[in-house]
Amino acid sequence: MYYDALKTFVTLVEVKNFTKTADMLLMSQPNVSLHIKKLEQEFQTKLLLRSPKYIKITPTGEILYERAKQMITIYEQTRRDIEERHNTIKGELKIGASFTIGEYILPSLLIDLQNDYPELVLQVVIGNTEEIVQSVRLYNVDIGLIEGQTNEKELSVHSFMQDELFIVSSNNHELARKKELTIADLQNQAWVTREVGSGTREYLNHLIRSNGLKVKSLLTISSNQGIKETLIKNGMGLSLLSSSVIERDVQHKTLSILQLKNETFPRTLSYVYSPIMKDKRNVQTFISALKQKWPTKLNELNDQTTDNT
User: Fold this and answer.
1) Are residues 251 and 130 part of one domain?
2) Which of 18, 194, 222, 265 is buried deepest, with most CB atoms within 10 A?
3) What is the pLDDT of residues 137-153, one digit of tens each?
4) What's phi and psi for 183, nearest 5 deg?
């Protein structure tokens, strides 16, 4: 490929000076002469007439000059096209997500990713936090999104979103009639909650233990939707759920938030991956999209609690 020689020839024709050409192309003047000599040998013609005072292009040089500019343009465009092809985000990305994130938070990001990277094949596995951490550790997924914490020292954990949990009940529950509650009002209540291994369940267990609450009964359902249906249809029981899970229910006034005096239940959502996945291009792309989508998560339900209690 005579790209470098053609580039030298075109530049020399345009600036009409060997020294300036060498400076522009960051090469020595003898190399400029060598490139021209190689082209003249290749095409078996004199391309330039040279003297100490001037450089004049020959008729055959004119032909090569016009074609060389075309060839250089085609070559450089081809290189850009190949680089863009190599840089295309494609292939498969396996994402593990806890139930709350996978069912209520992640879908909007998946749509964005599909629009931005149509050649990227997305596969989502949903489980509780414990199951997702295990999937990441065993390389069953490339990256995981979790609600709770993990003690897995082999994994890299980073927060990406601030979430808030709320205690909710059906509109018919006796506590839903009170404008403001205290922790004491939660004594001897029936709870509907997620299964062991869920980040939400872990948070509820902490809430109960740290406040010395007595539990009347505990119904476990491994589905956020199942919990909400149970609360709404039975009219009994309390639950601790993410703002993203109950947002529509609060707006449609099918569930009530129990507002506790001076009590909030914030938590951080995190992404977790094995260090071996750090340099995987699709993983990096996903993390970048994650950070752009949720630079911070603000609670949007606080303004609605007055209307729904």
Assistant:
1) yes
2) 194
3) 989 999 999 997 788 88
4) -60, -35
